[in-house]
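Lab notebook page, bench 4
Experiment: in silico fold of construct C2
Operator: M.H.
Input chain length: 61 residues
Purpose: comparison with the prior construct
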Amino acid sequence: MLRLIKRFKREEAGAVTVDWVVLTAAIVGISLGLIGLLQNALTDKSEGIGTYVEDRTDLLD
């Protein structure tokens, strides 16, 4: 049993996997936070662009 614990302690493959999981989770968390911050501003801009396009297409009729 002691030999198994020593071998587990020497192995680095598991640590690399944990690093990647933590890094990926951080990237996803930051991305979701940015989406939350930018959502209202982007929605307002897109609605403004939609209104502008509608006004311009009315002039073509």
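Observations: The CA atoms of residues 3 and 31 lie 43 Å apart. The two ends are 83 Å apart (CA to CA).
Next step: discuss at group meeting.
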